[in-house]
Amino acid sequence: MIPFWVVMKFLIFSIFVIFKLAPAESYSIDDHLIKTILVRAHNQLRREVQPQASNMKEISWSTSLQLLADYKVKDCKSSSLSLDYNGLTYGYASRLIKDITEPSITTFLTSVEEWFDSGQYYNMYDNECGYTPRVCENYVQVAWANSSQIGCAYNYCTIRNYESNEYYGVLILCLYYSAMDGDLPYISGDGCSHCPESAPYCNQGLCASATATDRPSDTPYSSNASVYKYNAWYLLVLLMIMYMFGKLY
């Protein structure tokens, strides 16, 4: 029979490996007020693009995108996101805020405003960025006319910068459907003058898919069954270890 201390060392080591490999905990935005503010901030800023947009869709919250953002933000690497999931492509905007311990409503609001304000570096007529492309991409995604769904999450991250110095912060990530694709973000013109068939109604300059009285607050796009597939694998490995331990003793 295998000595008890050998089994215990193996069990402790296995549990350590499982938790070491498991994704870091991230935080869904479950507060209804924060969701409402994020949606309203996006819609208000989308109304304010210059020149004015004629085909800008209204944004609404998606629980599916929220859960996907929650999964994606776990690794604290927004710059290396894979945006293809279940056959669909999602756009994103992200912001790392250093030296804060708890994000507030203001934190989320200023993040959206910062993404939008980066439009000062974007030339709509030439479709070019006068700064680093990633900065302009945040603005273009927020102002992407065909985006109609958003979901956000955040995580506490330890980031190493180019000087190899570590610092702590909160990473905020918002996912969008649909994603920007390199073309102009919208068609300029009078508000709602070029609304697509999928959003034929007009809500204060934004193309809406339904009238104000029956506009849905959330339209999930895809199943989330596989979002937490890695957690299932970790649980399975742990159960196998416990089973082996029971067979030995």
UniProtKB/TrEMBL annotation:
UniProt keyword terms in alphabetical order: Signal
Pfam family, one: CAP
InterPro entries linked: CAP_dom, CAP_sf, CRISP-related
Signal sequence residues: 1-26
Highest taxon of source: Eukaryota
Domain SCP per the UniProt entry, residue ranges: 33-179
Keyword Signal: yes
Transmembrane feature ranges: none
Matching Gene3D superfamilies: CAP
CDD domains, per database record: CAP_euk (cd05380)
SMART domains: SCP (SM00198)
Record bears the keyword DNA-binding: no
PANTHER family: CYSTEINE-RICH SECRETORY PROTEIN-RELATED (PTHR10334)
Record-given protein name: SCP domain-containing protein
Taxonomic source organism: Oopsacas minuta
